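Progress report, Aim 2. The chain analyzed during this reporting quarter is listed below.
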Amino acid sequence: MTDKEKRRNKVIRQMKALGTYQPGYADIINVYVDLMLQYDALQSQYEASGYQVTEEYTNKAGATNQRKVPILNALETLRKDIATYSDRLQLNPKANKQEVVADKKDSGNSFDSLISQLGKESGN
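Predicted structure tokens for the chain:
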């Protein structure tokens, strides 16, 4: 079994345990797993570099400056993407606290419903 298959199975197990798994999420799960594998590979490279943050860079005009290493930019982007996908797959506490689909059973006036709900939350 490949690392990708192991990671994919782990994500599916986590989602089933949370009650959020649906077979229709297969494509999103695959993208999420790919992002995680890319992150792991880049993180290993970053660690091997001694966690270098900047490097010297000479621009077209010949000026030498310090710039953030490209691998660090890639890791930051991957972190954001992983967080977004984990939200979509409801794999983190933030996503699990949010109601994914609103309950449409209330056929009354939405403004009245809002006021009523706010009253209940404030203890009135």
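Strands lie at 54-58, 64-68. Residues 3-99 form one domain. These observations will guide the mutagenesis work planned for the next reporting period.
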